[in-house]
Amino acid sequence: MNTSAIFERIKAAAIEDWQRYVDHEFIRQMEAGTLAQAVFQQYLIQDYLFLIQYARAYALAIYKSPTLEDMQLAQGGLNAILGEMHLHIRLCEGWGLKKADLIAAPEHAATIAYTRYVLDCGQRGDLLDLHVALAPCMIGYAEIGRRLAPALAANPNHPYREWISEYASEGFQQAAQASINHMQQLADRALTEARFLDIVAIFSKASQLEADFWQMGFDLAREKN
Ligand SMILES: Cc1ncc(C[n+]2csc(CCO)c2C)c(N)n1
């Protein structure tokens, strides 16, 4: 099939689920600086557990790589996760939570659902299926980082400066672009017309699971109150 600008086409086909993810109430409140800290803390603790499982998904992407270049790109993703986890440890330390406390937290159903879904896409499918399941995470956070960056300039005391800066950073934006480029290569090699709807379904599902992940922060904070 004609696979030009494949990421834009997949996103357009899944636009409602994508919007519900990148424009979730959590993001709106974060942008405004009004998101309750308890909600953000619950999210971030679960996100640490999420990243451990997500690192396994990138490791699976190395295993599923037909070429050395695919392997190197997946390895870059794995390294980026290890770097991202420093943000979580730093922020949690500021609240008096140690790494051991994070690891000991029980995984929420939304964390399990999302990470195991991605791992399953990789186990039963090929590298394109897995890459598409991984895409909303990387590319969505880059879109959110770009959108929220102006809020930092407007408010010098923005409470979520560190988090927003991480995803708005040049390094992170480049990594997301590299992920789009890799998706393009994989699609050029393996995407057929017959597979397109299956690929869109994976992207939609992962986007829905991202939206559920934001929602989990509100739900957990309410339960603990
Ligand atoms: C629920 C959730 N979704 C996406 C990310 C962002 N993220 C996770 S792994 C990875 C790839 C390399 O760092 C990126 C961008 C997150 N932290 N939590």
TrEMBL record:
Substrates-to-products reaction catalysed: 4-amino-5-aminomethyl-2-methylpyrimidine + H2O = 4-amino-5-hydroxymethyl-2-methylpyrimidine + NH4(+); thiamine + H2O = 5-(2-hydroxyethyl)-4-methylthiazole + 4-amino-5-hydroxymethyl-2-methylpyrimidine + H(+)
Keyword annotations: Hydrolase, Thiamine biosynthesis
GO molecular function, one term: thiaminase activity
Pathway: Cofactor biosynthesis; thiamine diphosphate biosynthesis
The UniProt record lists the keyword Plastid: no
InterPro entries: Haem_Oase-like_multi-hlx (IPR016084), Thiaminase-2/PQQC (IPR004305), Thiaminase_II (IPR027574), Thiamine_Salvage_TenA (IPR050967)
EC number, as in UniProt: 3.5.99.2
A Pfam family recorded for this sequence: TENA_THI-4
Gene Ontology, cellular component aspect: cytosol
Group of enzyme by EC: hydrolase
Gene Ontology biological process: thiamine biosynthetic process; thiamine diphosphate biosynthetic process
All residue ranges annotated as the Thiaminase-2/PQQC domain in the record: 18-218
Gene3D superfamilies: Heme oxygenase-like
Homology family: Belongs to the TenA family.
PANTHER family: BIFUNCTIONAL TH2 PROTEIN (PTHR43198), SI:CH1073-67J19.1-RELATED (PTHR43198:SF2)
Role summary: Catalyzes an amino-pyrimidine hydrolysis reaction at the C5' of the pyrimidine moiety of thiamine compounds, a reaction that is part of a thiamine salvage pathway.
Protein name: Aminopyrimidine aminohydrolase
Species classification: Bacteria, Pseudomonadati, Pseudomonadota, Betaproteobacteria, Burkholderiales
